[in-house]
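Render this sequence as a predicted structure.
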Amino acid sequence: MLTLSPTLLDETLNISYQAGKYLVDFYQKFKESAVNVEHKLDNTPVTEVDLCLSQFLIEKLTALTPHVPILSEEQCKIPFAERRQWDEYWLIDPLDGTQQFINRTDHFAILITLVQKQQPVLGIIYVPILKTIYYAMQGVGAYKKVGDDIIKLASQCSPHKRAIKIGVGAESTQRKVQPLLNPNYQYEFLIYGSCGLKSGLVADGTCDCYVRFGSTGEWDTAPAEVLLAEIGGQVFDFDFQPLTYNQKAHFTNPNFVMVANSAFDWHKIFQFNA
């Protein structure tokens, strides 16, 4: 089992920075029409950029920790019978927000997580175009770096006497969320990019929570688990239960909510079973 240390964190951050340089180069080189876009079985897009970055990250993480297996969104056909034996592994999404990349919104990220005993313990969300990186390690805290400025993220105040700020991915999601909310509170919605970016907005206090309907993978939520745990936040499904990692044959998450302050009574806000 790897020891969680500043050195391990720094070396993993360096790998993410290197991957980010490649991603920026790809982004500047290709126009939308020049990117080879295919679709996976779930109809989500995948590009040559996803595949190249996946291979790059696998090679770099393997060199860093030769005995730790790696699970990438783009290379995840590992039998459950094999991976369920893993005590630890790297979980990566080389391009979180592929559609955002294709649409040239700048709102996409590189996600890297170390999972030990089915619990994410080190997480990185790197948004190279915006020169922003979120990172956290269990017991060390959570941080946001923009350019050369590093901010240690802190626990967020409960939204008792103001509108609750909710991050969503699209107007269609906002319309789905609204009927599930307690009408006795006020709400503001922010529509923003990829899953990783929205989880960053929760961690830094821009949003109080992020609500997700529809398909995501364990790689999408894993780094946020570390970020939010370090500031007193939480990720839970619509039954208010935690998400799981490497405990089932597939990688698909249920619908979920990420919150910045787990002490707030979110049962009063979300009426999922009403």
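Summary. Residues 6-29 form the longest helix (24 residues). The mean pLDDT is 91.
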